[in-house]
Amino acid sequence: MVIRRIAPIEENPLSYEEVQTPEPRGKEVLIRVHTCGICRTELDEVEGRLQPKMPVIPGHQVVGRVIETGPNVERLVVGDRIGVAWIYYSCGVCRFCKRGLENLCEKFMGTGCDADGGYAEYMVVDEDYAYRIPEVFSDVEAAPLLCAGAIGYRALKLTGMEDGDTIGLYGFGSSAHIVFQLIRHLYPNSKIYVFTRRRGDAPGELASKMGADWVGETGDTPPSKLNCAIDTTPTGMPVKEALRNLERGGRLVMNLIRKETPITDLDYMQHLWWEREIKSVANITRRDVAEFLDIAARVPIKPEIVEFRLREANEALRMLKYGRYRGSGVLIIK
Ligand SMILES: [Zn+2]
Ligand SMILES: [Zn+2]
To answer: ∠ CA(132), CA(134), CA(137), 5° rounding?
Structure first.
């Protein structure tokens, strides 16, 4: 599925095409793709909130098997089941890379954005940017762990949460419903409050079913203050709301990069005083992905999955835009 032009997803801008199978060079491996998770980033690429190379094959939650190796590959062999995440390349020598912050690398390349990704039968990736998938996960279950899960894990680390803290989750889509399971595992004495668009909507129902301590609508005041919060919504309003509900010294981590509506009317006394903080999450490191897959296998995390066929990618992204499915959308390619 190829993006050749920027257009609203309602116009079906992704086209189903026959393209050349890429050849693995140097340290690259050729992957036969089995599944690819659907992420809001694809919607941002299609609709022009993020500028990908053009044309581009999107998709950065890729699970498949190595079917061919480049001449300099050392670690992977044909038959290995691997995953590819958002980080496709980092330079390794800039001051960010040297400090373990390759997510901030000035030459960072995103999979399915700066290089072709997994909305396809085949893709190539450098073996150093591939991860072995733990046995406990099927190809379908593993896909959403690679961005929704892994970036959720990075966001959770950035909150500085400790066991016993109360956390607020604004939005309850693919990422939040995975982070929910991670929080229950890592912080068994903590409370989780979930805020969704409308009372009784599909994400809210999923949060109730999963046993959230409280579920409300964004704008509601929860039963107690939040020690930290994660915002995964595409709109500006939840930022203000989360800050309003934060306890003194609390931190809000924004897990969604491209807000579709602006963050307005922040008031110093109401939203920031008492050392309340906002932090964004930018990209991901390979260490985040590897650590998360390891923890996820131990929990084990079970994402709620909605399956689509590759040629249904436009439809799947449209449903994501309007919040018409709950949990994680995954394209089945093989
Ligand atoms: Zn993503
Ligand atoms: Zn770098």
So the answer is: 125
> Which pLDDT tens digit goes with each residue over 37-80?
999 999 999 999 999 999 999 999 999 999 999 999 999 999 99
Ligand nearest to the CA of 255: 1
Taking the centre of ligand 1 as the mean of its atom positions, its distance from the CA of residue 221, in whole angstroms, is: 30
- Rounded Cα–Cα distance for residues 140 and 259 (Å): 28
- Give the Å distance between the CA of 90 and the centre of ligand 2: 5
Do 117 and 156 sit in the same domain of this protein? Answer: no
Question: Can you name the residues that pair with 226 across neighbouring β-strands?
Answer: 246
Q: How confident is the model at residue 258 (pLDDT cuts 50, 70, 90)?
A: confident
Q: What angle do CA 31, 46, 323 make, to 5 degrees?
A: 95
What CATH code is carried by the domain that includes residue 120? 3.90.180.10
Cα-to-centroid distance, 311 and ligand 1 (Å)? 19
The ligand that comes nearest to the alpha carbon of residue 105 is 2
Specify the 3-state DSSP secondary structure of 224: coil
Q: Which ligand is nearest to the CA of 99?
A: 2
Which amino acid does the sequence have at 320? Answer: L
